[in-house]
Amino acid sequence: MTATAPSATLQLLVHLALVCCRPKAVPKHLSSLTTLTRLDLAGNSLQGGWQRLLPLTRLRDLSLRGCLLQAVPQQLPALTALTRLDLNANKQLDGGWQHLLPLTQLRELNFVLCGLTAVPEQVSALTALTRLALSHNSLTVVPQHLSVLRNLAYLSLCFNNVSSGFQHLLPLTGLTRLTLSREPVPAELAALPRLRISYVHSPPPSATPLQACIAALILLGLLAMYLAYGWLA
Asked: Are 39 and 61 within 8 A, CB to CB?
């Protein structure tokens, strides 16, 4: 977004990425961009201004990845058209779960690296979910309240300490992909013949400078694809 861009053109924007732009609050001009359907605010330490999202009722995809959130913003219930919410890498996220309840159209929810010790019970109200990412937390059990998410097809639990509660996944007959960090396959999951389990183990030792450069180039390519097409499978 530039100062010379005609305001009429800006008001027709549907996708906007303000990644790592370092605003201290949600920018005030966002409230006028009411045609937005995808908004990426990743990598910004946002300390307020959430009321500026209230007019964005057409938003379907919202990324608040790495925004140093401590609670789910109380303004999110107004965004009832959301189908994807990315809260990845908010390592101190510890409340505001009730603000997820009105988001009944959510299909993808990302809680990776959120410092969770338990899955919020309010997630059970989001019965349209097809993808739920819970990896890189401190979970120890699959909670019973996940058993109501009958549309769930993808569940990520790797890099946790989950060792029990797998029986609560048995009602999820549409579940086709599960990622874990522990082997062997929990015996309970044999009852889900369509399920494919992937094991993701600890990362390799520190990369050499050349490997790091190659990895950075790959990440840039993935970022370009993400900005163009959304959440990568």
From this structure: yes
Mapped onto helix, strand or coil, the DSSP state of residue 99 is helix
Average pLDDT over residues 181-186: 81
User: What distance in Å separates the CA atoms of residue 162 and residue 159, rounded to the nearest whole number?
Assistant: 9
Tokens of 4: 């010379």
CA distances (Å), origin 97, targets 110, 122, 182: 13, 6, 28
**What pLDDT score was predicted for residue 91?**
96
Burial of 154 per CB tally in 10 Å (0-12, 13-18, 19+): middle
9-223: CATH class: alpha beta
Find the range with the poorest average confidence among 15-29, 58-72, 179-193.
179-193
Per-residue pLDDT, 3: 47
Tokens of 33: 């961009």
The mean pLDDT of the chain is 88
- What one-character DSSP code corresponds to residue 204? P
C-alpha count within 13 angstroms, C-beta hemisphere, residue 233: 3
Q: In what order do the strands lie in the sheet with 108-110?
A: 15-17, 38-40, 61-63, 84-86, 108-110, 131-133, 154-156, 177-180, 196-199
Residue closest to 181 by CA, chosen among 233, 131, 136, 121? 136
* pLDDT of amino acid 137: 97
